[in-house]
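forwarding from the other thread:

> can someone predict this with BUP?

sure thing
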Amino acid sequence: SKTQSPHVALFPSSGMGHIIPSVRLAASLANKNFHVTMITAHPLVSKAESNFLAHFFAAFPQVISKEFHLLPRDPSTAKSDETDPFFLQIEAIRRSATLLSPLLSSLSPPLSALISDIFLSSTFTPITADLHLPNYILFPSCTYMLCLTAHFPSLVNITEEINIPGLSTMVSKSWLPPPLVIDATGFFATQFVENGKNMVQHNGILMNTFDALEPESLKAINEGKVVNGFPPVISIGPLVPCEFEKQQVSSLAWLDEQPDGSVVYVCFGNRTALSREQLRELGVGLVKSECRFLWILKDKKVDKEDVAEIDEVLGKGFVESVKDKGLVIKSWVDQDGVLSHRAVGGFVSHVGWSSAVEAMWHGVPILAWPQIGDQKMCAAVVKKCGLGLWVDSWDWNGGELVKGEDIGKAIKELMGDENLKLQVAHIKEEARKAVAFGGSSENNLLKLRKEWEL
Ligand code: BUP
């Protein structure tokens, strides 16, 4: 019989670090003539999420959009300790999971696979098993973090150094997502363990990485050294930014005026706000670095609530005093546009994995300043692969203040490190090879297509 294009549904959880890779994968599958359905939980948490998705659906009318309407919380039974709005959204998806089965069965042509999120793993596998539907995870972090997630449930207690079978780099206790250490019975930790155990129930784990970047972790997990019988881990990255993400914004016009490689770009992602005290130290650091800078300022976790004026956040006079050297903005930027700009020579980043991969794609060295979650694991990878620097004594968000003086020194080092520039240029080349014709990631996607066509 004539083979039909596979139909794949994607269902990411909340946060731009989850939605963006999922959308980029959806776009790439749609461009390869797959039938694609994108399921999103409503109401969404942030403005950035709604804007991004609206632009995506406008640019890809062939992608079917399905809104998954969350059931209201029942205050009489709700007993969560969780307050983070992005995690509360995951809890809401979990509580509404019974709505998923009818939605998935109603899609036409029938689905070949569901690609969901690690945070939804244990919620969705019983549903896909019932429907006999192949179920994949798009894991939005590095393979090193995947190995930790897979190994963690088997740990009896957390030691100062954790040895993941098959890997040569020990995981320091201080690199673990803090809620795992602080509260082993809380929402985050219990979900982390449950989802980690449940990963073996999937047909495969898709990674926004490429073989040349994390060879050791990919080999160890795919040879069953980390967890016996683990599903195939399939590198399909870098998931490349799409045309529709491009913005014409004033920040880019400002960059046009700056010399080549002179600007350090500072951004900690869409859901991490530094304390005001830490933000002001960062301001001091940027001045001390003597570099030009483009700083995306975030004062609140959720963008809708981030209404304070820049002067109120950084202190009156700061912006005026740096106006010849720096631009501070308090809105979403087209990060790909910034990182691809010839004026940008370095990136001070929280090293959310998408940001790290985007920096590789454009060959921009990173000063890793992990803030929350998996970010120290990503920082370890960034440092190991030669993409950037990491001062691993700097504390998590909310911990000990990092002083302006130290920040200034680290940025100076980043912008002056010639060796780093060479290494990063090499990683960029490898990243581009991986997704080009005949590249490892491109071949992996073609193989998946064959499986899904059967
Ligand atoms: Br802020 C910001 N423009 O202004 P990560 C972010 N991004 O394009 P994490 C912009 O958001 P979260 C902005 O390019 C990346 O693709 C950025 O994902 C984009 O961070 C994404 O780096 C952020 O994986 O997500 O911490 O996982 O942003 O939700 O904190």
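The mean pLDDT is 94. thats all i got for now
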